[in-house]
Request: fold
Amino acid sequence: MILLYLGRPAEKPPPPVPQGISIPVAPLEMKAVAVIIDDFGHSRPAARPFLEMEYPVAMSFLPGRPFTRELAAEARAMGKTLLLHLPMEPEGYPAKDPGPGAILLSHGRREIHRILEEDLSTVPGVVGVNNHMGSRATADERVMEAVLDEIRNRGFFFIDSRTSPQTLGFVIATRMGIRTAERDVFLDNDPDPAAIDARVDELLDLAEKRGWAIGIGHAHPLTAEALERMAVKARQRGIQWISLESLIAYVDPGNRNVVR
Reply:
């Protein structure tokens, strides 16, 4: 398989969620994971293993990339869950560039709505949004309220990728009554197969302990291979790999069991 990934690197993962934050949990009789794969739209070959994967992986597309529209249409036809991978301003901007279609702190509310509308128009069939980069923008209450207002108006859900420990995305989405959840584990910031497997094990351990967990990976061939191994491990441990929509149904703000 091709081992070269040409997409932009993910931001450095933040520290674990601090103690004391309310964490939604699934009913105790259920153990489940959901997986989102980010950064589709740059390459057809990078998307192929995930399009063909029999498991319910959610595919998150960057707006306006060369193959975004056609790959999103193909993914939708194959029954995949589609998200907009919304570029947002990171710490270190502009040296660190989130790419076309990004939401910046300099944008006003009307401009944010316009950009988000244009981004969504390039990804047909989306049902949710998660942030690409955004370590600065997701920590800004004004920006997040404007973004989430448009997401709520469209009836989409929001997944906070947690690219910063200061993110307000999940908190504000909950306050606004939007279906929402947070990323628990980045699976492949270290592209070594052993490292990816270790993060997969961390994801499954969390699902076993808490009842559910969400992992985010990227459109790497090695990540696709690790997910095939994850499916086997999950079955052996009695953990269901379910669709993102199904998992969100368990962690919806209006129907949540909470541990502290």
About this structure: The mean pLDDT is 89. The first helix runs from residue 44 to 51. Residues 28-252 form a domain with the TIM Barrel fold (CATH 3.20.20.370).
